[in-house]
Amino acid sequence: MSSPLVTVVTPSYNQAEFLEDTLVSVLEQSGPPVEHVVVDGGSTDGSVELLEEYEDQYNLRWVSEPDEGQSDAVNKGIEMATGEWLCWINSDDYLLLGAIESFAQAREANPRSDFIYGDFVFVDADGNEIGKKYNTKPSKFVHKYWYQFTGNHSSFFKREVMDALGGVDEDYDYAMDTDLFWRLLETDFTLTHVPVFFGARRLHEAAKTTGEPPAERRREIARLEADYPTSAIETLLPKPILSGAAMGLQGLYHLTDGRPEALAHL
């Protein structure tokens, strides 16, 4: 069997309620070959039975064993992956139909790109769309003060990019994605945004990043913000002003991209 173009890495722990949607979303992809690596943390809720049910239906490999949390599971999945490109989809999120084929087309159109990312939708616990996240070209300023410039559910890394970054930082339990994408912005790799919706992020009561952030998440965000380099003018302006400017910049990017409809989703 030839090596897959894309390996989808999925960390999983006791989310059987949503895991099948994730598995099916990879199973039903069209286009180039895809490998799915699921790293389960020793679930006891029926997740393992689902993995056993689907393991012969498509190119799925999985393990179920105790781990040190989500970041550890993502890095384990990266180590197991054999694809030329990597995509990280959590077990309560999923790929949209045709995402891998659309990514392959974007890759062919942007052969020098090392990282290709698009947009994603927000869905509720039942999978009903409740919002959209339109991304734009990379911006450190937007990432720092408004919203991280992309999401893991809409991003594809060349293998060597993820290797160079060293995977996700396992010191983070909540902000590992924000940290990963900031470190990516600090590199010289070629990052390309395409106006395609690749994935779905599910918002539900049990999600780690839904609702009022716990103290640990707030501490991690504060740590990230403290590590961001800042210009002299940034140190003089209050954060609400900087956040408003970053939102405005994101809106300007949407207009220059010819996507005015995105302004309603800032």
From TrEMBL:
UniProt-listed CDD domains: GT_2_WfgS_like
Ranges annotated as spanning the membrane: none
Source organism, top-level taxon: Archaea
Domain Glycosyltransferase 2-like, chain residue ranges per copy: 7-158
A matching Pfam family: Glycos_transf_2
InterPro entries, sorted: Glyco_trans_2-like, Glycosyltransf_2, Nucleotide-diphossugar_trans
Protein name (record): Glycosyltransferase
Organism placement in taxonomy: Archaea, Methanobacteriati, Methanobacteriota, Stenosarchaea group, Halobacteria
UniProt cross-references to Gene3D superfamilies, sorted A to Z: Spore Coat Polysaccharide Biosynthesis Protein SpsA, Chain A
